[in-house]
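ASSEMBLY PREDICTION REQUEST
Request ID: AP-0331
Submitted by: J.K., bench scientist
Number of chains: two
Total residues: 225
Priority: normal
Notes: Please return the full assembly, not individual chains.
Input sequences:
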Amino acid sequence: DAKTTQPPSMDCAEGRAANLPCNHSTISGNEYVYWYRQIHSQGPQYIIHGLKNNETNEMASLIITEDRKSSTLILPHATLRDTAVYYCIVRLYNNNDMRFGAGTRLTVKP
Amino acid sequence: DTAVSQTPKYLVTQMGNDKSIKCEQNLGHDTMYWYKQDSKKFLKIMFSYNNKELIINETVPNRFSPKSPDKAHLNLHINSLELGDSAVYFCASSQDGYSGANVLTFGAGSRLTVL
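STATUS: Completed
Returned structure:
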């Protein structure tokens, strides 16, 4: 499975867009990019996933580069409640487990 | 209704004891998981069951024994507890991982403290 690299921490001002990068240079053609987040002391929460097209849902947008070697999760208007650890995971579409790395700790500041 | 519920939420016990953590999901999912999050906050998969069949068993001491009486339940029993077992244990479930996107729904976690 492809490994991912994320910055350990980022800050974002409340109301601004939060752009969280993820490198996955060894991704294979049939591997998807998944994003989860974990708000302090809670269970991880699924955010979004994609293969090669950009994806958007009510929580976030996922931008995947054309060569698929990196992606960016965008929270369009970050709130204090978006402060969490964000995990980028690359897995086969029907693979039966999610393996979490260290993630990026996003702190949204007033 | 909580989608994935774990009990107990907190568990404090002595070394050497045996304890269980229960997990139930009401989502109709086929696959259930146990993850462990230690003090360094790394989240590691321990076990995965699909329709009551064990499909993932990571390098976990055999003091840990998952039991799945039906596909809606996956319990974790731990024998001879050690200090290093102190962690937060998360249960999760997903729709059949063999045929669809692997979106996991997690429980709130069970914090185990071994004294």
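REVIEWER COMMENTS: Chain B touches chain A at residues 4, 31, 33, 35, 41-45, 48, 50, 55-56, 90, 92, 97-109 (CB under 8 Å).
SIGN-OFF: pending second reviewer
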